[in-house]
Fold:
Amino acid sequence: MKILNLYAGIGGNRKLWGDEHDITAVEYNENIAKVYQDFFPNDKVIVTDAHQYLLDHFKEFDFIWSSPPCPTHSRTNTFLNAQGIIRYPDMALWQEIIFLENFFNGKWVVENVIPYYKYLIQPTILIGRHPFWSNFIIEKIKIKNILNNITNSRESTRIPTKDYKEGLAKCHGFDLSKYNLKNELLALRNCVNPKVGEYILNKAMNVIHEETIPQGKLF
Structure:
């Protein structure tokens, strides 16, 4: 199956997908893209704007995963606003959902965080603190986390930074100690729980498989 992995980061959602698929990953940050390529050498990694790449290449894939940047949607904006940090929500999130829903013939999923405002489009499912939009059914599942008070969130700050970073690295299975990343904690916080990524891809594949099974004639 040809997969497009947009805003790939270091590959949290992709970690348990295996190597049997033809995967193209798009990541804007060159240093992060190099880490992804190191972890997943068989993937094609492209350093460019994922939002534009989707528009230009969506017809080439069977399954698309998109995780647009979440900071401008996060509920932390209510605190930032009080501190004088005022910004518009990035509408690329909603643009991609609408675009995929109307023009992409394959299976797709868009992931983000619970916003500080009312959803413009209701998500398909909420897993932990992450809403997912998709054109196939995703049942709710519980994913255990080894960290107390942390549930695969990009917003948790309830434990010391060092412990939080080490816990996320262990939880997601990424050792970033040999990389000179400017913000290692952010790279880990941006990861989707690998088990969630695996679960959702399997659901998409089951749907695709069911739709390609020839139907027998009724007598």
Q: What stands out?
A: Confidence is low (pLDDT under 50) at residues 146-157, 215-219.
